[in-house]
From TrEMBL:
It comes from the Bacteria. SUPFAM superfamilies: NagB/RpiA/CoA transferase-like. The lineage of its organism: Bacteria, Pseudomonadati, Pseudomonadota, Alphaproteobacteria, Hyphomicrobiales. InterPro entries: NagB/RpiA_transferase-like, SorC_transcr_regulators, Sugar-bd_dom_put, WH-like_DNA-bd_sf. It comes from Aquamicrobium defluvii. This is DNA-binding transcriptional regulator LsrR (DeoR family). It holds the Pfam family Sugar-bind.
Length: 328
């Protein structure tokens, strides 16, 4: 009789270990991967994969069928991975489709994901957005040594909330790590000023450091009046309309990209004090954490722009994204 995987009496993943166990069981028992392939896919040692699989049998994870509520999410995750060439997709169930609720749910999943991956000597580059701000509320403490946080974009001279540079600061503060910041507004008045600032030795070194991080954690947004960057007046909606007219579909690190992830030729982009998405394409692990059906075109563009291999999103956005053209 075929064996499959389930979590009894659970409607969602209750811990990172439970999730890892369920993913291992799915890959091994459902998709027929070898133990070595399971280990490679999950980025763990073969010994740990063996222990996880053994635990699934001992604690009842492996039974006859997959829990009806867990199975659709796992299938959706695997479909996203194939559709966009991802190494890993994490889909969080979000019944409430309000922007605040989606940010909270996706942010929670992101906080759990990052907490399991912080380690001694890690360098992590960080973007901004409501989802990443929510992520900071779900971090789990562990003591790490020689970890470094690099902010991938500038800040605001006046901000009541959601300063673009604040997410990196909060992550560094939480884990008591070194922090490198772009000490300039995210958008300066003139592109000549932006060019001059990037010539400063400190910012030139930070730009180089940003391309050498181990992990880049980003969020993306669309170009709409609902997007934070326009709603909060960081850019005017007239500029937003101009960006859309130039082919822009989304914002990745304060740089506006077209549907295929190319940074568009526009004055706003030339005024940005942020890392160009193309500069992090070689980062070993780029994570995009973003949800909401409104943002699906921006998420797809963000994956293309950064060569992201990990996506953390919500269920409704994941289903809608599968209707978009795959990435070649």
């Amino acid at each position: 009789m075929a064996r499959t995987a389930t979590r009894q009496k659970k409607t969602k993943f209750q811990s990172d270990q439970d999730e890892l166990k369920l993913r291992a069981a799915w890959l091994y028992f459902i998709e027929g991967l070898t133990q070595e392939q399971v280990a490679q896919h999950l980025g763990i040692s073969r010994i740990k994969a063996l222990r996880l699989l053994a635990a699934t049998r001992e604690d009842g994870t492996v039974q006859i069928s997959i829990n009806a509520q867990a199975e659709p999410l796992l299938r959706l995750q695997r479909a996203l991975e194939r559709h966009f060439g991802l190494f890993e997709a994490i889909v969080a169930p979000a019944q409430d489709q309000s922007e605040t609720s989606i940010a909270a749910v996706v942010g929670h999943a992101t906080g759990r994901y990052i907490s399991e991956r912080v380690s001694d000597g890690l360098t992590i580059g960080v973007g901004w957005g409501a989802t990443l701000a929510a992520c900071m509320n779900s971090l789990s403490w562990r003591e790490v040594e020689n970890m470094t946080v690099v902010s991938l974009l500038g800040g605001l001279t006046h901000a009541a909330a959601h300063n673009p540079s604040a997410v990196a600061w909060r992550l560094a503060e939480f884990y008591k790590t070194e922090l490198f910041q772009i000490t300039a507004p995210i958008f300066v008045p003139h592109e000549e000023l932006a060019s001059a600032l990037w010539e400063l030795d400190d910012l030139r070194q930070l730009r180089k450091r940003a391309g050498e991080v181990d992990i880049a954690l980003l969020s993306v947004s669309d170009i709409s009046k609902q997007a934070s960057i326009f709603r909060r007046g960081i850019l005017s909606w007239e500029e937003g309309e101009s960006l859309r007219a130039a082919g822009g579909v989304g914002d990745v690190l304060g740089r506006f990209v077209d549907a295929e992830g190319t940074v568009i030729d526009h004055p706003v982009n030339r005024r940005a004090m942020s890392i160009n998405p193309a500069d992090i394409r070689k980062v070993p692990k780029v994570i995009i954490s973003s949800g909401g059906v409104r943002k699906i075109h921006a998420i797809r563009a963000g994956i293309a722009a950064t060569n992201a291999k990990v996506l953390i999103t919500d269920e409704a956005a994941a289903q809608a994204m599968l209707e978009l053209p795959p990435l070649g």
